């Protein structure tokens, strides 16, 4: 260790860089690629709606979400208010439900619906594809590489990053810039998304972030209603979200913003 006020130096075996850092990085990348293709093989494509009424029920909730997210860039205030009033009245009146006569009876039992059971199994498979590889890799790192300090970051960090950068290394006086093997695993876990996008494309299943984005922005063929969810309650919640949404245009005050920007 170095004296206080001087550069902290640790004499390490250079082989640690090749036998710990490279293997962890390569294993993480290969695991993400295998997870991507295993997810493609195990997951079945979403089934389209069986009836026009079911298709209208699915697309109507997506239409409300798209209106809230994209109205400021494409619609005038009058057009926004017209669409907003139409959707809110339809949500509250049950005009978009595929079975209006069952309104108020609660969500059906997902165990009795084959489509709901298939959706639950698909979600379970996706969770297993994320949890099992992470558990195995973390156990492998704890068994063979626990307690190693493998690299030093070239930029300074505050003391708040110490627990994140030095997991598994219980040293109070160690510089925050030193990274342990277990922390390198976590950095790769959350920082390899750009590599996966470059190797597999933007629509990949190698990272948990992409799966979360797919749940937030479902496709037209996917069912936005999860197993056991009541569409009427989801419509009511979306109606409340639309009612409190106010229209604004991204071009409002553009002249002042351009003049105040020193780059122009």
Please outline the major beta sheet.
2 strands, antiparallel
Proportion of strand residues: under 5%
Give the ordered list of helices and strands.
HHHHEHEHHHHH
State mean pLDDT (0 to 100 scale): 79
What is the rounded Rg? 26 Å
Cα distance, first to last residue? 51 Å
By secondary-structure content and strand pairing, the structural class works out as mainly alpha
Which overall shape is indicated by the principal axes computed on the Cα atoms? extended
Query: Order of strands across the biggest sheet?
Result: 1-2
Question: Which regions contain 5 or more consecutive residues with pLDDT less than 50?
Answer: 1-5
DSSP, total strands? 2
Which range best describes the helical content: under 10%, 10-25%, 25-40%, 40-55%, 55-70% or over 70%? 55-70%
Helix count?
10
Question: What does this protein structure show overall?
Answer:
57% of the residues lie in helices and 3% in strands. The chain is an all-alpha fold and 264 residues long. It has a two-stranded antiparallel sheet. The longest helix has 31 residues, at 114-144. The relative contact order is 0.17.
Q: Secondary-structure map with pairings?
A:
Elements: H1 15-42, H2 52-74, H3 77-93, H4 114-144, E1 149-152, H5 162-165, E2 178-180, H6 181-191, H7 193-200, H8 208-216, H9 231-243, H10 254-260
